[in-house]
Every structure is written in C-alpha cells, then in structure tokens.
Specification:
The complex is a heterodimer of chains A (170) and B (179). Chain A is mainly α and 170 residues long. Chain A has one domain. Chain A has 8 helices and no strands. In chain B, 74% of the residues lie in helices and 0% in strands. In chain B, helix 3 packs antiparallel against helix 4 and helix 6 runs antiparallel to helix 8. The longest helix of chain B is centred in the middle third of the chain and has 29 residues. The chains are: A mainly alpha (170), B mainly alpha (179). At the A-B interface, helix 3, helix 5 and helix 7 of A face helix 3 and helix 8 of B.
Chain lengths: 170, 179
Amino acid sequence: MHAFAGWLQETPFSHTIQDVSWIIPLLQSIHIVMIGVVFVSSLMIALRVLGRMRVDEPFPAVWQRFAPWMWTGLCVMAVTGLTLVAGEPIREFTALSFWIKMALVALGVTSTALYGRSLRNLAVAGVPAQFPATAKLASVLIVVLWLAIIFLGRAIAYDREVWGTLSLHA
Amino acid sequence: MDFPSIIQSIQASAPAEWMRTSVKAMPFVESLHVLAAATLFGTVFIVDLRLLGFPDTRRSFSVISREMLRLTWAAFFVALVAGALMFAANAHTYVGNTAFRLKMLALVAAGVNMTIFQGVTARTVSAWDRDVRPPLAARVAGALSVLLWICVIFFARWIGFTKGYDFSIPQDTHINFQF
C-alpha cells in the first residue's frame, strides 16, 4: 500500500495537483459545499420519517425532492475526494481516519439506497401515517453515520491528535 | 481599549489557551465547525432554491422558510461558537490573514443581503408566496445568498492553506501500515 501511495504520488497527475497551489483548497471547498447538500438532504428525509418535517407531503414526494440532490452530491464528492487522494495519497493512506471514513462511506451509501427503497415500498403499499419504529431508528442511524463520516474527514488532518497510539502516523 | 489590545486579550484568554494546548481540542472544534457550516449552507440552500423557483414549487416559500429557520440558526450558533474558539487560539494571525478578512466580508455581505430581503422583499411575501417564480428581487436575493455562502466556505478553507501549515510527512518518517 505504501508502495502504491508512493507510486501514485509520483504520477504526473498527482504532481499537477500538488504543484498548483489552488487545486487542493478548491477541491476541499467543493467537497464541503457538497457535504452541506448531501447531509441536509439526508437529514430532511430522516426528519420526514420521524414525523418532524413535511408531514403534509407524501413520503415519495419528499424522497423525490431530496434524493437526486443527495446522489448527485455524493457523485461530486466521489470525484473531488478521489482527486484529493490522487494529489495527497500518502497523507490519506497513512491516516486511520481515512480508512474508517471509506468503510463508513461504503456503509452509508449502501444503507441509504436500501433504506430509501424499502421506505418507498412501504409508503406506496399503505401510505402509513406513522413509520414503524425500525424505520425511525434506521433514519437516526444513517444521520449519525453521516455525522461520523464528516468528523472523520476533518480528522484526517489530525490523525495523531485524534487517534494517539492507534494512528498510522505513529 | 484599542483593537490590538482586544485581539491580544482574546488570544490570552483561557479558552484560547485550551485550544492551543489541548491535543484534541482543535480537531474536534474544527470538525464541529465544518459540520455546522455544512448544515447552515444546506438549509439556507433549500430556502434559496425555492426563491430561485427551482424544485419544491408546490410548497410555499414561507412554509419552507419557517421549516428551515430553527435549523439554520442552530447551525449558525454552533459554527459561531466553534469558529470563535478557533479564532481565539490564533487571533493575531487571523486578523492579518487575507483569506480570513475576505471570509468575514462575505459573511457580512450575506447578512446584509438577508436583512434587505427580510426588510423589503419579504414584506410583500403574501403576493408571491405560492408563485413558482418569485419576483426578480427575491430571485436575486436567493442567488446572492447561495453565491455569498459558497464564498464564505471557499475563503474559510483557504485560511488553512495560508497560515503556513504543512501536512506532508517528512521523508524519513517510518510509516507503519500494520493495524
């Protein structure tokens, strides 16, 4: 993995990202703007399931309003995120936060897709006035998962401070 | 008390000292700041999009605005407290930092835009509340709001790259990839 990071860091593509001073801050800024779009979209869907937001709208309508923004935002973040990794592979690969974040992102995307599908089926089948407790619990868990992902993203810059002896920098 | 001595006393305060000396303070406070800023932007963006007449056109502007209000202000408050802590830790560096100054300028501009919108355009809201395309003044306010908040985020991220931090790992560092 270290060899791969070293190789990636020496590619012309990576060199361009490293050498042009505004590329990394620009990519990180776009990444943060997209976090806002994705996190709040996910939060709105969760609050609808919890019965705290847009209860007058049917669930599929709320899903349709926010899901496309969520998926598009995630795609943009995948592009900016992968480019950032290509630009600073050693910084990312040597951070424990990075690896946990990647695992949680995979989990977050998969569970959101499954959760969205089952909730829409539920809504179409019976248009429940109240979602079952499991759906509410899943909503809370997904929001917590995104919170953890956002935290870990920022923690990449502080691996040793956050993880102490567990840090891969040590 | 003049400006430099105010900055001096902020930097010498107990919270500032805590931010500088506690190993975990900066990463946690900074993450909280990013999280709150993202939530703030995301909720403001929903309201601005409605002003621009884009999605959500079956829902009236005032309903969407009211729904987002508490979340937006809560996020703003958290971002403000976390941001103030980060500022206090290195107050001297921040006040002289161009990216920080531009960020504050964009922040003030976003506030002025919001105040003008609330004070002038929103007074006639009953006339256009359900319109798919709100009046020009409302659309301009929405567009300005999105642009200014994006500027705030961009300048904010720039600060971290102008203070002279170096994230690269020194050449002779042994990196252990075993968990």
